[in-house]
Amino acid sequence: MTTFVDRVELHVGAGNGGHGCASVHREKFKPLGGPDGGNGGRGGDVILTVDQSVTTLLDYHHSPHRRATNGKPGEGGNRSGKDGQDLILPVPDGTVVLDKAGNVLADLVGQGTSYVAAQGGRGGLGNAALASARRKAPGFALLGVPGDLQDIVLELKTVADVALVGYPSAGKSSLISVLSAAKPKIADYPFTTLVPNLGVVTAGSTVYTIADVPGLIPGASQGKGLGLEFLRHVERCSVLVHVLDTATLESDRDPVSDLDIIEAELREYGGLDNRPRIVVLNKIDVPDGKDLAEMVRPDLEARGYRVFEVSAVAHLGLKELSFALADLVGRARAAKPKEEATRIVIRPKAVDDTGFSVVREDDGLFRVRGEKPERWVRQTDFNNDEAVGYLADRLNRLGVEEELMKAGARAGDGVAIGPEENAVVFDWEPTVMAGAEMLGRRGEDHRFEAPRPAAQRRKDRQAERDDVEREFDDFEPFEG
Ligand SMILES: Nc1nc2c(ncn2[C@@H]2O[C@H](COP(=O)(O)OP(=O)(O)OP(=O)(O)O)[C@@H](O)[C@H]2O)c(=O)[nH]1
Ligand SMILES: [Mg+2]
């Protein structure tokens, strides 16, 4: 038996950025030829893409952990590391991406529509790229940023124009089989259909798709039977068809009360009120069925429904029905705003990714949050004093130091950068951090310095100052 899976939890990991390389060029008569460490490569993204040849989420049910490849580290000789490869995950048309709390992140409809589920980490800069007029030979490089890890939920909602709803055994699957070329399972016991069936109908010049869902019973919206779980498959349909059984032998049922019960379930489920509906009275090949259909028709019409009497088995009334559906589908399509054939959904960036916040928490810890400070911390090799000093410079330039002081931080207070589970915690040393620039410039190796005349030294100092202004923004070459 094939399993139908229309909801999976997926754990995706983007590739880590490769580390930058700290290296010094060496030649025979030039032992200190300057920094030549290359940049690390970017980690690959994890991208969900609609592929119409994929029809279920079964693959992800079987292997729910997926990772893109990491960027390679940079190397000496100014060699950049290779970027990691994006991991493209094909998903069925109509896949909805949610976070674990149930918020919709993306609705993937249409071949090629894509969503970046996890973004690769940027590569770390090598010491060649970190060199500047004031930091001629950095003895450190930046670490690659770890790739995003995301837990997401994928839900499949069938993309069909018309949805058939009704009691078990009303003949929904039979109707699909005679209106289209689809061959769903049909049987005379209830709940034959366990998964939605999809068929393609051609009526005149209109081609549309038609889907059924497992039969609904009273209480479906509270989870009775199979129905509710599958009602999301009718959410996208633009036309609803009530399939009513005129030949049921159950004494407490008749087409009108069946309709009322199904309508009550749909209302309870919600969100379907504005779909046009028509009523199909099925099984009129059965003599009693035909009589019953004639009897209830006026009642149904009085409620405003267009009523079609058909027999799926004897092929009665099918042409009229399929053209009426084509007409409704055509109107629905015309009323819909034209959508791009392919939409690309990109995860929105944090609202203000240049900002940061400093909050004093109950236990006296000062927490710094912000895209840049958090990333910078991850890019720092804490075993390298120069790298740590560079981080201090960057934080200081951004104004983190100042905000900490304003928030009342004192020497020795704990400062955490990053979220609860993933923070780097320091004992704050304001004089060191605030005075970082005064203590000495990073990466200045005097062996590189030739004696300079005073005028040149003044000019260089000005250049250095300009450089400092720039560098903290400039060194984000992998942005975007
Ligand atoms: N006499 C007669 N029997 C029909 C007609 N349409 C369907 N049936 C029979 O009714 C039974 C149920 O048909 P299905 O198409 O499986 O019904 P369904 O609505 O898909 O049922 P579930 O999948 O259980 O919800 C089968 O035995 C069919 O042969 C019809 O027009 N006339
Ligand atoms: Mg069925």
Automatic annotation (TrEMBL):
Composition bias, Acidic residues: 469-480
OBG-type G domain sequence ranges: 160-330
Uppermost EC category: hydrolase
Listed InterPro entries: G_OBG (IPR031167), GTP-bd (IPR006073), GTP-bd_Obg/CgtA (IPR014100), GTP-bd_prot_GTP1/OBG_C_sf (IPR036346), GTP1-OBG_CS (IPR006074), GTP1_OBG_dom (IPR006169), GTP1_OBG_dom_sf (IPR036726), OBG_GTPase (IPR045086)
Compartments it resides in: Cytoplasm
GO biological process: ribosome biogenesis
GO molecular function term, any single one: magnesium ion binding
Ranges where the Obg domain occurs: 2-159
Residues at which Mg(2+) binds: S173, T193
Gene3D superfamilies in alphabetical order: GTP-binding protein OBG, C-terminal domain (3.30.300.350), GTP1/OBG domain (2.70.210.12), P-loop containing nucleotide triphosphate hydrolases (3.40.50.300)
EC annotation from Swiss-Prot or TrEMBL: 3.6.5.-
Requisite cofactors: Mg(2+)
GO cellular component labels: cytoplasm
Signal peptide extent: none
NCBIfam families in the cross-refs: Obg_CgtA, Obg_CgtA_exten, PRK12296.1, PRK12297.1, PRK12299.1
Known function: An essential GTPase which binds GTP, GDP and possibly (p)ppGpp with moderate affinity, with high nucleotide exchange rates and a fairly low GTP hydrolysis rate. Plays a role in control of the cell cycle, stress response, ribosome biogenesis and in those bacteria that undergo differentiation, in morphogenesis control.
Family: Belongs to the TRAFAC class OBG-HflX-like GTPase superfamily. OBG GTPase family.
Protein name: GTPase Obg
Gene, per the UniProt record: obgE
